[in-house]
Specification:
- By secondary structure, the chain is of the alpha+beta class.
- Helix content is 36%, strand content 28%.
- The protein is built from five helices and four strands, in the order E-H-H-E-E-H-H-E-H.
- A four-stranded antiparallel beta sheet has the order 2-3-1-4.
- Strand 2 and strand 3 (52-59) form a beta hairpin.
- The longest helix is centred in the N-terminal third of the chain and has 11 residues, at 15-25.
- It is globular, with a radius of gyration of 16 Å.
Amino acid sequence: MAITVNIYYSGIKGNARKFAEEMVSSGVVKDIRAENGNLRYEYFYPMEDEETVLLIDSWNDQQAIDVHHASPMMAKIMDLREKYDLHMKVERYVSDETGVPELDQAFIKE
């Protein structure tokens, strides 16, 4: 059962994008992706909101998230969030192991 957390980082004057860029350029994102249990760690930019960045962060289970939260990586992330004065909105999802229902598959082009 994978757990996916969507984090919306918001700031002013492009700070959310600067944060995401520094997360990548500093190697923090690469290190997080290498952590045991990480399935996905990607940033996206909403087309209609230039002051927000969406992070899709997915893990094998809660234990993997707990280990990540206890890692030195979190101090780096928190320092950067403070540097760019970001605010967050968080959504959490648990995967549906049954897959896409057959009726919904008619709308999916692979």
